[in-house]
Specification:
By secondary structure, the chain is α/β, with parallel strands linked by helices. Helix content is about 45%, strand content about 15%. It has two domains: about 230 residues, Aldolase class I (TIM Barrel); about 70 residues. It has 13 helices and nine strands. The protein starts with a strand and ends in a 6-residue tail after the last helix. The structure holds flavin mononucleotide.
Amino acid sequence: MIKIYIAPMAGVTDYTYRGILKEFNSDMVFTEMVSINALECARDKTLQVVLRLREGDSVQLFGKDIPKMVESAKFVENLGVKHIGINSGCPMKKIVNNGYGAALMEDPEHIRAMLSEVRSALNDDTGLSIKIRAGYKEHKNPVEIAKIAEETGCSHITVHGRTREQMYTGKADWSIIKEVKESVGIPVIGNGDIFTAEDAKERVEYSGVDGIMLARGVFGNPWLIRDIREYFEHGKIINPVTELDRINMALEHTVRTQTEHPERSFIYELRKHLCWYLKGIRGSALIKDKINHTDSYEEIIALLNMLKENVIEGKGVE
Ligand SMILES: Cc1cc2nc3c(=O)[nH]c(=O)nc-3n(C[C@H](O)[C@H](O)[C@H](O)COP(=O)(O)O)c2cc1C
């Protein structure tokens, strides 16, 4: 069966959502990216939130300095983490202007030195991988970087089929991912524009990748993992998700957030997830608007229950 990995996504793959995604049997779930500079200061508040780990979580690190990367990887490994990913794909200005993220692709020899030093510092049974883009400005060197990943002992490489310049626009180019797959022996994980089970099957058949990494496709849709498995196995989706499933998951996500993050600031994170779960459900616009204007968990739960009753009765909420 094809491997299904969940992408590192800042502001999305938080502690609570990683717990939900794991219950859908994803093969690997990444944390949001973690700065190796923040790791220097173990009391950093953001770090405490982002590095609140579940068993089996993989951690993604970003930065450029090699000694700091080695130290951070060891720090994370000592927390019990079994797989560390290095970010060579983030396109954001404030990241690439410092030489981090996708900017690393401009200097393959730096990547080689970084990967080999991190690899030799880690225990043999700790996995290491790198996530790259199709290139920086153009489709230039993903094959070169993939070969470096293989030579330096990475357990897989993930390729997002867009260049840094494309950011998130245009379409991911799976021909680049296919080219990488055909050039190296380590597992290649393809990433970009998988929103449905059909997308997954088509991309896998076309490129021959060993696994896929889901990102925006799992916004409010952890069922995509199950859909893909069913589609590969039976040629169709056996248990299509219903509106009620989505409202129930919105309720579950709310209750988990309330218990797992008693600090109120997490309501802001929660709202985003809830809007995704409710997208397209008849009558949900008003409910979403109300959710976005309250900071009471109890009120959110009452609103979701109201929507649920209306869906059960076949009515919208006016
Ligand atoms: C909200 C958001 C946050 C992201 N954060 C990260 C991140 O922390 N590290 C990373 O390597 N990629 C990050 N990405 C990129 C995704 O991992 C993925 O490569 C990209 O969205 C393409 O996949 P998709 O077309 O399936 O969404 C992020 C993407 C989104 C939409």
